[in-house]
Amino acid sequence: MKRNKLFIDTGAWIALIVENDHFHKAARSYLESLDLSIKRLSSSYVIAETYTWLRYREGFKSADNFLNVINQSKASGMLDVIVGEGDILDISEQLLRDFSDQRLSYVDAVSMAIMKKERINKVFGFDHHFYLMDFEVVPYL
Question: For the whole model, what pTM was predicted?
C-alpha cells in the first residue's frame, strides 16, 4: 500500500507555533485531522527558515520550542526531514531561472525540487507559489 505524502512548509510551522498567527486555528485543525498513515516530510531549509523567522519575530523561547517539536516528531517517526543537496539544489536553481518572473525564494525552490523528486503533490502551508507547479496547497481556505 502506497502511503500518501505531505510536505510541511514554513508557513504551516509558523502557524502551528504562533498562537496569534492569522492561520493558527486552520493549521492546528488541519494537523489534528490528518490520518496517521500520511507520511510527513519537511526540509532542513524549511527548518532553518522557520527557526530564523521565529527567533527574530517571536524570540528564542519560541524558536527553541519549535526545534523541540521537530526533534520529538523525528524521534517518534512522525516526521522525516530531507537535507537538500546535490541534484535537489540543481533542480532548485533551474526552477529559480524558470520562474524568474515570480518572487520565488530559494527555500521555496528547494521545497518544490524535493516535492518533485519525492513525488509529493500536497503541501501543508499557505504560500501561493506552490501553485506554480500545480501542487495542492492545504488546508483549503
Answer: 0.94
- Report the distance separating Cα 30 and Cα 32, nearest Å: 5
Amino acid making up residue 41: L
**3-state secondary structure string, 54-109?**
HHHHCCHHHHHHHHHHHHHHHHCCCCEEECCCCHHHHHHHHHHHHCCCCCCCHHHH
Instruction: Give residue for cell 522525516.
Output: 80
Q: Give residue for cell 503533490.
A: 121
Give the number of residues written for the chain. Answer: 141
**Which grid cell sits at 71?**
526533534
Share of the chain above pLDDT 70, in %: 98
